[in-house]
């Protein structure tokens, strides 16, 4: 939709050409065809964010909504400097990248809006690569809306759409796609581990790794193509193909290792599934309430209280977790409880980490014995390096164990003693959870960068599949094609040749002002 410069703007008024507020500045002329064209470009809307370089200068509140001490409003685009001069009623721009105190006024009425810090970032040394301005204003709603209205009245400026600043940074080569994803994750990070992981991705670690792999493939491709062109030529160095082969096989090993690890990064991004299970009355609901620090489940001395799966998001030892309380596992019950038990078993299959819970004072009961037999079987089946499903055995109600009474039998699998009632043993449980979750989600502070999205996994798998067709001893032309396809996957992972739909999906994660 194109708004006429003389017609009504949906939200903001234009400065009438006949009322120049700042005579020393160029006043927009709605009769000027060049100005008209610029206005049309500035106000053009598409289904997604406007294409960078369209000439539009965008503005938005970049700090959160609502009353606050300081609010940051920013602009990006060619008219940023012009807007800054208009709002500060100044002929000159402030020194670049230095905070300057300025009085901001409404260009339509000259009315003072706020005394604010302004920062001028001439492109390309800015977040978006374009000319940018930041206004650090007092965070009252009237100030913020006054400044936004004032900016909207400056010709060539329009409100930004969600993610548009970042999209421009991407288009101008300031961020690659994995860094954009890292930035989106950082904005959404709710736990410490998510923040660490997102920051590493924003710092470009994953992109750097992929670029290194792509370079290896480019080199191998150059060697293979040289061999195709000059294979018979004596001048070609010996062992060229062999060297390419060694590098491609090493790359396959590295890709395989990352793919085996692939689900960890995704769990870190979207939350690991932790399921509490055990016989009725073991204290499962009490543990879920304790770990989530809220009354998610009903706690009662009546066995079989929890009938359905109750799920709650929790920050456990810095890791994002979807914690599920489930019905107590037992046989010979009514249809409703039976359905609860079926759902509990179903949820257990999806668990990344199982918290198997027993009443420490009731280990000899049939339901405890049956449950324990299942746990022992699953612990035996678990290899220490297996990160697909992990298990922690917790003996609750330790407060009911008297020092002179029977202690848990020595042949029990490794377990933790806990009392949900007194909190005794909780620190030990949290530490054990931290270790287990680091195994399930990967430790974001160490090791190689994690693959945090299915998209990453898809391209690495595509790369690996393509390399399986790399057989230079059989057919050099096909081998070269395999290298090209493999390299294409790595390039797309960092956003090269990315389709618009992928960009739209990724930028949808952003808020306005970012
Ligand atoms: N003494 C003692 N009692 C506990 C402890 N934890 C839970 N309880 C009590 O044990 C009873 C059962 O607790 P719940 O948390 O409802 O147990 P549950 O495993 O969810 O029970 P179901 O819903 O039947 O599967 C309640 O009366 C709790 O107050 C504990 O550490 N010590």
TrEMBL record:
Necessary cofactors: K(+)
Catalytic reactions on record: GTP + H2O = GDP + phosphate + H(+)
Record localization: Mitochondrion
One Gene Ontology cellular component: mitochondrion
Keyword Amino-acid biosynthesis: no
Alphabetically ordered keywords of this record: GTP-binding, Hydrolase, Mitochondrion, Nucleotide-binding, Transit peptide, tRNA processing
Pfam families from the UniProt entry: MMR_HSR1, MnmE_helical, TrmE_N
Matches recorded under PROSITE patterns: G_TRME (PS51709)
Residue ranges occupied by any TrmE-type G domain in the UniProt entry: 271-438
GO molecular function, a single term: GTP binding
Predominant place of localization: mitochondrion
One example of a Gene Ontology biological process annotation: mitochondrial tRNA wobble uridine modification
InterPro entries attached to this UniProt entry: G_TrmE, GTP-bd, GTP-bd_TrmE_N, GTPase_MnmE, MnmE_dom2, MnmE_helical, P-loop_NTPase, Small_GTP-bd
UniProt entry tagged with the keyword Transcription regulation: no
Biological role: GTPase component of the GTPBP3-MTO1 complex that catalyzes the 5-taurinomethyluridine (taum(5)U) modification at the 34th wobble position (U34) of mitochondrial tRNAs (mt-tRNAs), which plays a role in mt-tRNA decoding and mitochondrial translation. Taum(5)U formation on mammalian mt-tRNA requires the presence of both GTPBP3-mediated GTPase activity and MTO1 catalytic activity.
Complexes and interactors: Homodimer; forms a dimer in the presence of potassium. Interacts with MTO1; forms the GTPBP3-MTO1 complex composed of homodimers of GTPBP3 and MTO1.
PANTHER family linked to this entry: TRNA MODIFICATION GTPASE GTPBP3, TRNA MODIFICATION GTPASE GTPBP3, MITOCHONDRIAL
Family of this protein: Belongs to the TRAFAC class TrmE-Era-EngA-EngB-Septin-like GTPase superfamily. TrmE GTPase family.
Protein name as it appears in the record: 5-taurinomethyluridine-[tRNA] synthase subunit GTPB3, mitochondrial
Organism of origin: Mandrillus leucophaeus (Drill)
